Amino acid sequence: TSGNQNVFADRNFPPTYYPGTLDPSRASILDLQPGTELSAVDFVLAQPATFRIRGRVVDPTTGKHPQNASVSISPRQEAGATGIVVATGMASSATYNNATGTFEIRSVIPGLYWLRASISTDLNQPINLNVAGTARTAMELVESVLLGNSRSAQIPIEVGNSDVEGATLTLTPGLSIPMYVQFEGQQLSSITGLDRVRVNLRPTTPGAPAPYQALSFNAEGTTTLTNVSPGEYRVQASPPSTDMYLKEVLFDRQDVLNRPWEITNETSGALTVIFSNKGGQIEGNLVDTLSQPVRGTQVVLVPDQGRDRPELYKTASTDQNGRFIFRGLAPGGYRLYAWEVIEANSWYDRDVLAEHESRSTPVRVKESTTETVELKVIPAPK
């Protein structure tokens, strides 16, 4: 106590899932049907031991302590296909002292985290015309300017049963990573729409900066990802044709398409993106319980493997005859779903898919083949 006021040091109640777990994978699902009420939905809030992370931010470019550094932590995610967060808890910001360049983050529960620092672009500095000159739209120009002078650092950190002292975050300018695009069995000169190819780096870290995008490929099929901050990413790429699919993404001959790609300050090498025009195809009819065509309804295609790759999920709407078609599919197993009523994007939820899997239609896609199916719509709950 201090005077008449009670003082609670480092008292922290992290996000808790019903009925009282810090692990989202162990949470219980509450099924609320229309017109019903749920009672006795009681939570037990856990108050685990918490610790502090202390350290400093170093900016070797200026040799001074950054004046506007932002320091934060966020849970690290597994590098597997589940996407389950290893360390629970919300992202936390630090108390930063710009006079000494030191920071402190309090009330951190034990777990695995990413520790990140960044400083924003000083808009009083001249624009880097070499970067801005590659922009083709106003949005790309803004992104180039904002990223031009930014610096950041990110390191993995583990909080165990004690405070973490002496963590150092060394700010560096964004990395430049050369990139090549290839088309399996095709000459680059035969490809039309090369300017429509886009390659994104999607951060796996919650709260990390927006994805980095390659602005354009030249006639030789090369470009450069610029101002890439250290971190862990998923690579996404869109082909120039709806009949193509993304077959491989390699960084120095290592697969970075089917697993996260960790970029550090020491990362060097080239990224190669490979498309194939041998995409599979699924076409079919959507019918109701009376085998009548269902028109104007969304059909969802969900991959059996690679469910942490959102580009493998596809949607198509049925025409007036209940027909639908999917093109440019990567080989593999899929399931088709069509709901009379469904919340948008809820099919990314594994629990939703598991609930309706018995009413889905499995299909296996091979290169350069067309599969034909008849799909029954999943009725809305009564």
What does this structure look like?
The chain is mainly beta. Helices cover 6% and strands 38% of the residues. The protein has a 5-stranded antiparallel beta sheet, with no helix packed on it. It is flat and about 70 Å long.
Structure described in brief:
By secondary structure, this protein is mostly beta strands. It has helices at residues 129-132, 138-148, 350-356; strands spanning 51-58, 70-75, 92-93, 95-97, 102-108, 111-119, 151-159, 164-170, 172-173, 175-183, 198-203, 212-213, 222-228, 231-238, 245-251, 254-255, 261-263, 271-276, 280-287, 298-303, 314-317, 323-329, 332-337, 361-365, 370-376.
Mean pLDDT: 84
Number of helices: 3
> What would you report as the Rg, rounded to the nearest angstrom?
25 Å
Secondary-structure element series: EEEEEEHHEEEEEEEEEEEEEEEEEHEE
How many strand segments?
A: 25
Poorly predicted regions are 1-9, 78-90, 131-136, 139-148
Taking strands numbered 1, 2, ... along the chain, how are they ordered across the largest sheet?
Answer: 3-2-6-7-9
Structural class, judged by helices and strands?
mainly beta
Give the end-to-end Cα distance, rounded to a whole number of Å.
57 Å
State the share of residues found in helices, binned by percent.
under 10%
Tell the overall outline: flat
Largest sheet: 5 strands, antiparallel
What amount of the residues lies in strands?
35-45%
